[in-house]
Amino acid sequence: MLVQLIEKGYVYFGAGGALGFDTLAAQTVFKLKTVYPYIKLILVLPCESQAEYWEKEDKMIYEDMKAKADKVVYTSKAYFTGCMHKRNRHLVDNSSSCICYLTKGTGGTAYTVHYANEKKLIVYNVAKE
After folding, report:
1. Which one of 5, 63, 88, 99 counts the least CB within 10 Å of its CB?
2. Which domain holds residue 75?
3. What tens digit of pLDDT does each residue of 4-53 get?
4. Containing H/E element for 124?
5. Do 76 and 83 touch, CB atoms closer than 8 A?
6. Is the model's pLDDT at 77 over the cut of 80?
7. 40 contacts: CB under 8 Å, gap ≥ 6
């Protein structure tokens, strides 16, 4: 999926820095940078303490991801209820496409995809591939 987008001219890729799909997406961009060194990863994080309670290994992966990212943006300084939604809206508001892994109609991913559809983004759901 990413290769096709790069070949269409996409250069900037945003990721939310969460465990799971966000981390996998960021690591995929890092691997593709060896072939397409001009592509950029922008990590859009909900708050500075996002990984505070994560396991040690996950924190190490997170810190490595932040160090390798071309840009890191925090949508809030401190955690608050709703900061994840703020991060997700920021990602959508600053994108033309949304790559997701959506398997159910509820939760944060579903909310974000719904918002992306409202904003007329092209949505690619890799769970359907």
Report:
1. 63
2. 2-128
3. 999 999 999 999 999 999 999 999 999 999 999 999 999 999 999 999 99
4. strand 122-125
5. yes
6. yes
7. 11, 12, 13, 70, 71
Name the nearest CA neighbour of 8 among 99, 128, 114: 99
State how far Cα 90 lies from the chain centre.
Answer: 10
How is residue 66 written in tokens?
A: 């932040």
Tokens of 38: 């001009």
CATH number at residue 36: 3.40.50.450
Output the pTM of the full model: 0.94
Which token pair is 23? 């981390």
How many domains in the chain? 1
Both tokens of residue 40? Answer: 């950029």
